[in-house]
Write a structure and sequence with these properties.
about 20% strand, single chain, 12 helices, alpha+beta
């Protein structure tokens, strides 16, 4: 699913990755240093359907880890066209929990579409600035990613509307409340699925708090990511920190200080990401040997 690679790229973890067979086959943890003695521990769970340990009999183990974690990242391969299996496994995992336990787990869940770099064509664009650059999807590909994200959000999160909660920190001055939206001096909370439609409605009615509503929206936004292209890593990290609250900013400060660099890819690395080698059958050499097809930024 690309989850281990994503955590490695995002947090500097050193989780085992594998291209041939699924890893890990059992829960794997890794701890990285935070600030002033703080440590961040990540649990890499066996992929749903990738290991015998994901049998329903092990649901209790999964729920225990999900309940203990501050944030849960549920990774789905971006190239998938079916959300039914993930939706069913999520339902099975939480079947033995009561509503309060389900609410506790679902409030921490962030769904990401991993390996977005596999979605080609249409092409990706590499915006080169000196020796580094950033990958961005073309307009057509961006629309495709947006549609996939909306599809998985509808399938995985929308059915849990009654048990979902969106939370963000309150920096002060927030004054909006209703039967679903509440706030105190530390946090703003919304009970239910904070969809794009809900976000747009609140932002239109209270434009002065649009930033708060956008942070609430991030709780339930499905985010396409690529560890290879380092695409959307910075927004994902910010989403995680916003979801945890103001105290988490201190724990993650070392990572946040480098957030601008999360999306940077050296040009030397980019040149190795091409999928095609052109063979000149008449002359018996590759086009790259001839230097006829140098790489250029689009």
């Amino acid at each position: 699913m690309g989850k281990s690679s994503l955590l490695n790229a995002l947090f500097g973890a050193r989780l085992t990755v594998g291209d041939v067979k699924p890893v890990p086959e059992k829960p794997q943890s890794v701890t990285v240093p935070g600030n002033s003695g703080h440590h961040l521990t990540f649990w890499d769970m066996p992929g749903i359907g990738e290991s015998p340990v994901t049998d329903p009999a092990y649901a209790a183990m999964y729920v225990e880890k999900l309940a203990e974690a501050d944030v849960v990242i549920w990774a789905v391969h971006a190239d998938s066209r079916s959300a039914a299996y993930d939706a069913e496994r999520l339902r099975v995992l939480l079947a033995g929990a009561d509503d309060e336990e389900r609410r506790h787990v679902m409030s921490k869940l962030t769904v990401v579409l991993t390996k977005a770099d596999t979605l080609t064509p249409p092409p990706w664009i590499f915006d080169m600035r000196g020796r580094h650059g950033t990958f961005v999807p073309s307009a057509q590909l961006a629309g495709r990613l947006e549609a996939k994200a909306a599809y998985f959000e509808q399938a995985l999160l929308e059915p849990w509307d009654d048990l979902l909660t969106a939370t963000t920190y309150n920096t002060g001055g927030f004054t909006v409340s209703d039967d679903r939206l509440t706030f105190d001096g530390h946090a703003v909370r919304y009970r239910g699925h904070f969809s794009q439609r809900v976000c747009d409605a609140y932002s239109a009615a209270h434009p002065e708090h649009a930033e708060v509503f956008n942070r609430l929206r991030d709780n339930h936004r499905v985010l396409p990511c690529s560890s290879l292209f380092r695409y959307n890593l910075a927004p994902l990290l910010v989403t995680v920190v916003n979801k945890l609250g103001p105290t988490a900013i201190f724990r993650f400060q070392r990572l946040l200080d480098d957030v601008a660099a999360l999306g940077g890819v050296p040009v030397a690395d980019m040149r190795g990401y091409g999928n095609f080698m052109i063979w000149d059958g008449m002359r018996g050499v590759t086009a790259f040997d001839l230097g006829q097809y140098p790489l250029h930024p689009l």
